[in-house]
TrEMBL record, chain A:
<keyword id="KW-0276">Fatty acid metabolism</keyword>
<comment type="function">
    <text>Carrier of the growing fatty acid chain in fatty acid biosynthesis.</text>
</comment>
<comment type="pathway">
    <text>Lipid metabolism; fatty acid biosynthesis.</text>
</comment>
<protein>
    <recommendedName>
        <fullName>Acyl carrier protein</fullName>
    </recommendedName>
</protein>
<dbReference type="InterPro" id="IPR006162">
    <property type="entry name" value="Ppantetheine_attach_site"/>
</dbReference>
<comment type="similarity">
    <text>Belongs to the acyl carrier protein (ACP) family.</text>
</comment>
<keyword id="KW-0963">Cytoplasm</keyword>
<dbReference type="InterPro" id="IPR009081">
    <property type="entry name" value="PP-bd_ACP"/>
</dbReference>
<keyword id="KW-0443">Lipid metabolism</keyword>
Automatic annotation (TrEMBL), chain B:
<comment type="pathway">
    <text>Lipid metabolism; fatty acid biosynthesis.</text>
</comment>
<protein>
    <recommendedName>
        <fullName>3-oxoacyl-[acyl-carrier-protein] reductase</fullName>
        <ecNumber>1.1.1.100</ecNumber>
    </recommendedName>
</protein>
<comment type="similarity">
    <text>Belongs to the short-chain dehydrogenases/reductases (SDR) family.</text>
</comment>
<keyword id="KW-0521">NADP</keyword>
<dbReference type="InterPro" id="IPR057326">
    <property type="entry name" value="KR_dom"/>
</dbReference>
<keyword id="KW-0275">Fatty acid biosynthesis</keyword>
<dbReference type="InterPro" id="IPR036291">
    <property type="entry name" value="NAD(P)-bd_dom_sf"/>
</dbReference>
<dbReference type="InterPro" id="IPR020904">
    <property type="entry name" value="Sc_DH/Rdtase_CS"/>
</dbReference>
<keyword id="KW-0276">Fatty acid metabolism</keyword>
Amino acid sequence: MSDIADRVKKIVVEHLGVDGEKVVEGASFIDDLGADSLDTVELVMAFEEEFGVEIPDTAAETILTVGDAVKFLEANK
Amino acid sequence: MFSLEGKNALVTGATGGIGEAIARALHAQGATVSLSGTRAEKLEALASDLGERAFVTPANLSDRDAVDALLPAAEEKMGSVDILVNNAGITRDNIFMRMKDEEWDQVLEVNLSSGFRLCRAAIKGMMKRRSGRIIGITSVVGVTGNPGQANYAAAKAGMIGMYKSVAREVASRNITVNTIAPGFIETAMTDALNDKQKDSILTSVPAGRLGTSHEIASAALYLASDEAAYVTGQTIHVNGGMAMI
């Protein structure tokens, strides 16, 4: 796992209180990790803070899985 | 009880009677306040009267860019906005059949849409801090209707629906979202009425008098306090009994 993926995983585990083993690339925040829509907004805010990037609403709406987040952050670091 | 020590509050419409009273009440309980309004000189005078813990962030809420700049400006001065009081409002009264599009649009923009944008901006920080208070000053006419005020009543009723919806969304993050609905209060808005109009209004008020802006500020202070943590999505009616809802 890349450094970015590790940091994303840590945030997801902390925020959603889920088991780290479940936080795999294909895991959907809502369907697999039990997030509600407000949690997804907060995750995006946490990513913005951790990585010092701005994630516009249009991009945030496409970040549905752990892998989506890693991909976006790798492309925009 | 009702201490606001360490809390930062942004109050819009702080040059009006009710807005000023709210700013004074929150400040008196220890809050730092950022005063917003269109008349910078009047805001400065109020800030210097309050002394420490008072800042001035003027903004014309009919200007969308100014609305978007207001929350960041208040956060920069105070560090955060823990309490947002959407109090600013205008009237453009006219009988419905004569009401101009501009009269409708201006009232909806200032009284409803600017509050939507300010709430959206404020909630971001409140979510992160897992606490916040949003208080909107609506009006009894948003619930009862009032001839000549279709635009104003629509905006005020719209606030109530919006606040209830937001309250449901963010309650789990310890953010409460409530409105206060004043009845007839002694302010510049009601000073414009003549004695005959006032007498006619008072026949519908069981308390037999106009309310004071201090009585609205007291309700705002309660909603802003930790003591009101379990109150959300509500409208507190402060109207001397003229409408019992």
